[in-house]
């Protein structure tokens, strides 16, 4: 029987690293919903292969063109369990033309209750990347931790797919 780990590998080391960094930066995410994980691939062929494999352990909610390439979002049959959290959604973007991403888990996204400017104000010690704050649908801010990143926004991805997309 296929599992997420047998297809993509375990996300535990990736999640441990991000949570350690958030803790070091004193970002309290205890009240935030861990919305989804993103897994990047290097080629369109690999995207197609994984999209097909993941449908054996998840339901494809949508495949939408964003920034001139498709992004597939899946609801996992068995959520990823991490600490006291359950992560139900997985995002799989096709690579952007002329952009290289090493294959693997790349970012997580949290839903915050505060407005994004208020969230930034709560964490003045953090240099947030705010270029996504002007997005028309579900604006976001981001923190980079080397090859990984954490994004914060106000609506979870399932809601965006259902009501805002």
| Tally of separate helices | 5
Give the C-alpha Rg.
Answer: 15 Å
Main sheet, how many strands, which sense, barrel? 7 strands, mixed
The H-and-E topology, N to C, reads as: HHEHEEEEHEEH
Give your account of this protein's structure.
The chain is of the alpha/beta class and 165 residues long. Helix content is 27%, strand content 36%. The chain contains five helices and seven strands; from the N terminus they run ααβαββββαββα. It has helices at residues 4-8, 12-24, 44-54, 116-122, 157-164; strands spanning 33-40, 58-66, 69-82, 85-93, 104-111, 140-145, 148-153. A seven-stranded mixed β-sheet has the order 2-3-4-1-5-7-6, sandwiched between helices.
Question: How would you sum up this structure in a few lines?
Answer:
Helix content is 27%, strand content 36%. By secondary structure, it is an alpha/beta fold. A hairpin with a 2-residue loop joins β2 (58-66) and β3 (69-82).
Which labels suit this protein?
single chain; 165 residues; alpha/beta; 2,3-Dihydroxybiphenyl 1,2-Dioxygenase, domain 1; seven-stranded mixed beta sheet; 7 strands; globular
What secondary-structure arrangement, pairings included, does this model have?
Blueprint: H1 4-8, H2 12-24, E1 33-40, H3 44-54, E2 58-66, E3 69-82, E4 85-93, E5 104-111, H4 116-122, E6 140-145, E7 148-153, H5 157-164
Parallel strand pairs: 1-4, 5-7
Antiparallel strand pairs: 1-5, 2-3, 3-4, 6-7
């Amino acid at each position: 029987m296929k599992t997420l780990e047998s297809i993509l590998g375990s996300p535990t080391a990736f999640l441990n690293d991000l949570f350690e960094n958030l803790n070091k930066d004193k970002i309290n995410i205890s009240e935030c919903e861990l919305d989804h994980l993103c897994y990047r691939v290097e080629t369109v062929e690999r995207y197609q292969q994984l999209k097909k494999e993941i449908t054996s352990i998840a339901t494809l909610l949508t495949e939408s063109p964003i920034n001139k390439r498709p992004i597939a979002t899946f609801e996992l049959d068995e959520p990823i369990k991490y600490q006291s959290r359950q992560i139900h959604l997985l995002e799989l973007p096709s690579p952007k033309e002329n952009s290289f991403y090493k294959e693997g888990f790349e970012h997580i996204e949290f839903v915050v209750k505060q407005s994004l400017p208020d969230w930034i104000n709560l964490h003045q010690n953090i240099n947030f990347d705010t270029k996504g704050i002007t997005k028309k649908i579900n604006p976001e801010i981001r923190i980079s931790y080397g090859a990984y990143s954490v994004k914060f926004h106000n609506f979870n991805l399932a809601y965006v797919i259902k009501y805002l997309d």
